């Protein structure tokens, strides 16, 4: 079984399950001495329902743009086929002057907006003619 623990983990899922199964008559400090961890670690795992680490990602991401602004930028990306730098100029001019390039890129990745190459590939798969003209066939 592949167990993913963070670097500072002092307990494994097996030890956490033992902590949770320990009778209430055993104090937190006794369990802490037994497993060689702190009292706060025992309190953390004793009253949880699971034995796995929780995500350390923020629940509320600190985003520069509102959801409405993000929707406008995504529509501009897909309709106008703007690259990241061009989209950044548009966003700074009309929506959010403080927007950084990396914040815009993270938003596009988070919202799973396709890249320009993926958009072009999707257009050719849909049967739409390529944007360039083929060479004329001379006999």
UniProtKB/TrEMBL annotation:
Source superkingdom: Bacteria
InterPro entries named among the record's database cross-references: Homeodomain-like_sf
Listed name of the protein: Transposase
Provenance organism: Litchfieldella anticariensis (strain DSM 16096 / CECT 5854 / CIP 108499 / LMG 22089 / FP35) (Halomonas anticariensis)
